[in-house]
Amino acid sequence: MPTALPTLQASLPPEERPRERLLRHGPTVLTDAELLAVLLRTGTHGCNALELGRRLLARFGGLRGLFGASRDELRGMPGLGEVKAAQLQAILELARRELAEEIHRGDALSRPDHVRRYCAATLAHRRIECCMALYLDARNCLITSEILSQGTLSQATIYPREIVRAALRHHAASVILAHNHPSGNAEPSQADEHLTRHVRAALALVDVRLLDHIIVAGGQTTSLAERGVM
């Protein structure tokens, strides 16, 4: 009969078990590794779920790298199979969808923090530069969002005409543009500013407003509207 994998319950005293600590004190007191352990539930032979959580964070450089990892990268880690890799990717998608719901429900301009968090949840973990657009209705509620382009480590090609075409297809009244800087530097470049003005002018021709262009770099976001570029 095969030996069972070590569980967190069997390998740690009750007062140190993340699940019990979460039930007693709430999730905010747990470390990232402990929260992962609650999700993973089991580890591998000689490595409980808490230690597996620590190894995952170390291997991928933290939560952002972990949630940005591909399924093949996750499955390549000892202790992670198809099911656990899918669970980790599902957590990030649920968080992203919760933020999208908030933007769907109300005026995006009155909730800039939700917009930034949504853009960060979608783009921050990506290892190549990607650009997305949020299409809003006349009440500034989110209609939909789309990834426009994916490029190299440092450059994505964005065509303003494609943004205009999509805005018309979605009957959008306004657009928020966002892209990531894999380098980790959230400062806008001259090219970013030039693109912003170009897209704004192209959208204005069809009576659609460009409300903002958000740059995402790691846990940081920069608004070009707040910088006065708009």
TrEMBL record:
Asked if Transport is a keyword of the record, the answer is: no
Key words, A-Z: Hydrolase, Metal-binding, Metalloprotease, Protease, Zinc
One of the GO BP terms on file? proteolysis
Task: Report a single Gene Ontology molecular function.
Answer: metallopeptidase activity
Entry keyword Zinc: yes
Q: Which residues form the MPN domain?
A: 108-230
Top-rank lineage group of the source organism: Bacteria
- PROSITE patterns according to UniProt: MPN, UPF0758
- SUPFAM superfamilies per record: JAB1/MPN domain, RuvA domain 2-like
- Which PANTHER family does the entry link to? DNA REPAIR PROTEIN RADC, UPF0758 PROTEIN YEES-RELATED
Family in the record: Belongs to the UPF0758 family.
Q: What is this protein called?
A: DNA replication and repair protein RadC
Protein's organism: Pigmentiphaga kullae
